[in-house]
């Protein structure tokens, strides 16, 4: 057991060292992780809204609160110039982000507003979640349509 903890600790140190040696890769990895968290929480709300999973007020509220918190984080360290899909591998962030940063940030603000609106009603019933999913999904899609490369 102790060996496993030591190995895990060494792996963590190697990851930290790698991130420090290439800040552009670290930025891309951070934003990918952030997007996975969005995806997980949106999946809960979307599953309930579509009827693919039972509505659970507590889970819906937790997912919505998570989205509101995630969308309120300072993301400046994720969107480092030079970390687009043209400069590094394994990212779908288009160079247009840095060419249109004001618009990109406006879309980020719209996502936050939609996430906060969802958090205000998510525990009130599946109908309330359904009513807010369009705005929330639209905010995500608006940014992805403009600033994310197609999935190969």
TrEMBL record:
Q: Which UniProt keywords apply?
A: Electron transport, Heme, Iron, Metal-binding, Signal, Transport
Cellular component (GO) terms are:
periplasmic space
- Decide whether keyword Electron transport is in the record: yes
- The protein in question is named Cytochrome c556
Please give a single GO biological process term from the UniProt record. electron transport chain
The Gene Ontology terms for molecular function here are: electron transfer activity; heme binding; iron ion binding
**So where does heme c get bound?**
140, 143-144
Q: Where is the signal peptide?
A: 1-19
Q: Where does the source fall among the domains of life?
A: Bacteria
Species assigned in the record:
Wenxinia saemankumensis
Q: What is the lineage of its organism?
A: Bacteria, Pseudomonadati, Pseudomonadota, Alphaproteobacteria, Rhodobacterales
């Amino acid at each position: 057991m102790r060996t496993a903890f030591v190995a895990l600790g060494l792996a963590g140190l190697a990851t930290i060292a790698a991130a420090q040696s290439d800040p552009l890769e670290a930025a891309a990895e951070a934003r990918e992780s952030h997007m996975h968290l969005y995806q997980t929480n949106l999946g809960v709300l979307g599953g309930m809204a579509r009827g693919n999973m039972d509505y659970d007020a507590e889970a819906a509220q937790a997912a919505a609160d998570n989205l509101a918190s995630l969308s309120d984080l300072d993301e400046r360290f994720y969107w480092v110039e030079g970390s687009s899909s043209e400069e590094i591998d394994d990212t779908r962030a288009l160079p247009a982000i840095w060419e249109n940063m004001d618009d990109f940030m406006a879309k980020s603000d719209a996502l936050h507003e939609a996430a906060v609106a969802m958090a205000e009603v998510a525990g009130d019933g599946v109908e309330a979640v359904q009513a807010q999913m369009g705005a929330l999904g639209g905010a995500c899609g608006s940014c992805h349509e403009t600033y994310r490369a197609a999935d190969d």
